[in-house]
Amino acid sequence: MARPDELVFAPLGGVGEIGMNLSIYGLGNRHQRAWLAVDLGVSFGDEEHLPGIDLIMPDISFLEKERKNLMGLVLTHAHEDHFGAIIDLWPKLKCPIYATQFSAALFEAKCAAERNAPEIPVTVIPSGGRVDVGPFNVEFIPVAHSIPEAHALAIHTEAGTVLHTGDWKIDPTPTLGRPTDEKRLRELGEEGVLALIGDSTNAVRDGRSPSEAEVARTIIDLVKAAKGRVAVTTFASNVARIKAVADAAKAADREVVVVGRAMERVVQVARETGYLDGVQNFRSPEVYGHLPQDKVLALCTGSQGEPRAALARIANDDHPEITLNRGDSVIFSSRTIPGNEKAVGSIINNLVLQGVEVLTDRDHLVHVSGHPRRDELRDMISWVKPQLLIPVHGEALHLNEHAKLARAAGVPRVLVVRNGDLVKLGPGDPGVVGEVPSGRLYKDGTILEDSKSRAVIERRRMAFSGCAFVAIAMTEQGELADDPEVDLVGIPEKNRAGEAFDDIVFDAVMSTIEGLPRARRRDPDALGESVRRAVRAVINEHWGKKPPCLVHVLTV
Questions:
Q1: Residue 550: in which H helix or E strand, if any?
Q2: Which residues contact residue 85 at a Cβ distance below 8 angstroms, ignoring those fewer than 6 apart?
Q3: What is the maximum span of the chain, computed from C-alpha positions, in angstroms?
Q4: Fewer CB in a 10 Å sphere around the end CB: N or C, the chain?
């Protein structure tokens, strides 16, 4: 009798971190499996640790090798951390993509705005619909989240059903879109769920996440009470929040001016897909300066402190059309993502110095999370009754807290895994059975580099300790043809004794060359390495840091 096919799962991103989500499911045996990918997202670079890196993406080398067995890519929703890597990585996979209407439309608009984006076909599946992707039957179950058409995926296979929650919360009164489909999730639980692969973002927070309806009421009150101009910043993809801001502006007899390309793009897609039906038309930034101060509301990008976004430019007083003055108000209808605190704080301080009143979620209910808190996680477990729970979408603390909660709620098996772990879900005892290649790709300008990239490593070192450049011209006889040239970048001009670093390094180069035997002076590689070591050592002696040193030896 043939052994039944195994169902396996491996996270390639999004576990032990928030962002860069990519999960894969495999059906078959050790020698051959059909694969299904869920989401393909990005994380954002940190200028302190990754200077010049805009985006971080999951390493898909495993899927490239398995390309002929990759049946498709299914999207849970259209947030960047779930679909932002597709344009760069899909050409390496060329698999079918499945998404619901809003996600597909937003992706199409994103491609249209990108220079030289490849043509990437997307098959649109109705919300609540099902599609066969190879041996996987994938069902799109509506869930509430901070973007239209977020879906949990029920992945039905011969080996059992997995519920991949994606990002979700329980919001009985969403201001836009469908609430989480409790009825269908309970039905799944009755049918039997092998594993729940679940969002852990807010597993450390007790209670329940408040409703979007409560935020909408607060924003109406704040906008009505404002005297001067009002600016509101939020995540561009949060269409429910955009609608709430528009309703608040209408209640206060204000025109909405949309500022920022990402916001304009989402507004256009939301109108095309019917999510802003009945909402007044918005105005362009050129109109802003011509409207009375108490009749305008600017809806801006830049809630995370992005330096090129609208709000940063407004706070620095260098936006061509939008200005704020004493007595005006800015509402941050967002949460600061960890790592962005300094950038957001700088914008807030600049606005305060201009006399602008800044309102945040510290003082008012102007933002709610799109992720479930602990009571909501318990509800999901009680509805779905999984045999196994694997926490994903969170850092180590979030995963651990979600796992503890699941055990306390009576889930028979709970596994905490890492990116790259290959997990057997069934049949039989679940557990980690192997490892698949995983890692990070860095988008550096238009080039994708792996995590061992020399450019990334060297740039990080240069950001910390500058760089020394030395050019040496030697004759074929091993004599100096001219004085060496020294150029120090990002290195102090003088040491603690007030001596010029240029002179210190120049003397070190000269004494190193003069101290070498003629045979080594005639070998450009040997000479260059000796000078490099000497320069790094002398700078370290006088400064306490060892900068990279590039030595160019020219034979004349």
A1: strand 549-555
A2: 20, 22, 40, 41, 42, 55, 57, 58
A3: 87
A4: N
Q: For the segment 464-511, what is each residue's pLDDT rounded down to a tens digit?
A: 889 999 999 999 888 999 999 999 999 999 999 999 999 999 999 999
Token digits of residue 388: 């196994």
Find, among 222, 233, 273, 315, the residue nearest to 107 by Cα: 273
CB 52 within 8 A of CB 182: no
- 81/66 Cα distance (integer angstroms): 23
Distance separating alpha carbons of residues 543 and 535, to the nearest angstrom? 12
**What are the helix and strand counts (H, E) for the chain?**
16, 27
Buried/exposed code over 102-126 (b: 16+ C-beta within 10 A; e: otherwise): bbbbbbebbeeeeeeeeeeebeebe
The pLDDT-based confidence of 200 (bands split at 50, 70, 90) is very high
Q: Angle, to 10 degrees, between the axis of helix 101-113 and the axis of helix 261-272?
A: 140
Helix (H), strand (E), coil (C) string for 405-471: HHHHCCCCEECCCCCCEEEEEECCCCEEEEECCCCEEEEECCEEEECCCHHHHHHHHHHHHCEEEEE
Structure tokens of 227? Answer: 């005297």
Give SS3 for 331. strand
According to DSSP, the residues that pair with 44 across neighbouring strands are 55
| Mean pLDDT, rounded, for 137-156 | 98
Q: What is the pLDDT of residues 326-350, one digit of tens each?
A: 999 999 999 988 778 999 999 999 9
Residue partners of 40: CB distance under 8 A and separation at least 6: 21, 22, 58, 60, 73, 75, 82, 83, 84, 85, 86, 89, 90
What pLDDT score does 281 carry? 96
Contacts of the segment 311-319: beta carbons below 8 A, 24+ positions apart: 311/231, 311/233, 311/347, 312/343, 312/347, 314/231, 314/259, 315/346, 315/347, 315/348, 315/350, 315/351, 315/354, 316/350, 317/354, 319/259
Determine the angle formed by the axes of helices 182-191 and 374-384, rounding to 10 degrees.
50
Decide: residue 16, CB within 10 A, 0-12 exposed, 13-18 middle, 19+ buried. middle
Q: Examine the pLDDT at 391 and tell me if it is beyond 80.
A: yes
Q: What is the rounded CA–CA span in Å between residue 81 and residue 83?
A: 6
Task: Give the Cβ contact number of residue 389 at 10 Å.
Answer: 27
Which tokens go with 479? 């004599």
Helix (H, G, I), strand (E, B) or coil at 503: helix
Three-state DSSP state, 474? strand
**pLDDT, tens digit, 9 for 90 and up, residues 13-55:** 999 998 999 999 999 998 899 999 999 999 886 665 566 677 8
How far are the Cα atoms of 342, 394, 487 from residue 459, in angstroms, in the given order?
Answer: 21, 29, 17
The pair of three-digit structure tokens given for residue 269, joined into one six-digit string: 């897609």
Nearest to 177 by CA among 101, 81, 84, 74: 101
Model pLDDT, residue 48: 57
